[in-house]
Amino acid sequence: MALPVPTLAPRPSLAVLGLQERFPVRRAFCIGRNYAAHAREMGFDPDREPPFFFMKTAEAIVPVEPGQTAEIAYPSGTRDYHHEAELIVAIGRGGRDIPESEALLHVFGYAVGLDMTRRDLQAEAKKLGRPWEIGKSADQSGPAGPITRGATLDIKGHIRLAVNGAVRQDSTLAAMIWSIPEQIAIISRYFELHAGDLIFTGTPEGVDAVMRGDTMEVSVDGLERIRVAVV
Description:
By secondary structure, this protein is of the alpha+beta class. It has helices at 36-41, 119-128, 133-136, 180-190; strands at residues 13-15, 22-24, 27-31, 53-56, 61-63, 69-72, 81-83, 85-91, 107-114, 117-118, 142-144, 148-149, 158-163, 166-172, 197-200, 208-209, 215-220, 226-230.
């Protein structure tokens, strides 16, 4: 018997502080090794590497509601699941070949997020010269908090992550190699950006594994912090 035409589940959406309307997620771009100390802890020389991006599916995004603790499942196929604290840029107006000088005009707001990574599978993919999706785009691998509207942000603000109350990642946004305007401009050379796109702007040093039962708390100065439990 022929299968019926499938009905797709709705895509995730993020809360917007101060509004009843939600921000619908279209897709997620992620910049790799955008903090020098993190690049070095992963065995790379940040001074010799141009910027590069990978993607997560929209379905990997897990909305973290204001004041709540989200739960994500420990994924299959890995024994080394790492946290990566990130600032997220939410795009509110699309475009291609966006000049850096105009890039912030396309920003709807900012949020706190996590780029969860099956590190062992990512390392194997790197060794074999294969794509990273198996390591980076696991189900529920992109928790994202409520969006704070506005195109201004303290670029010297701290970004921190603690696991079960112990701080593991602690840096500032000023340590990013490629600025937010630069990231938007570079992505828009290769993809037409659209409203609803997210940009995960990279993670500082201190990435490490989590286990079932661990709770992560991630903060960026001026934004709503998030709590995520691994189950």
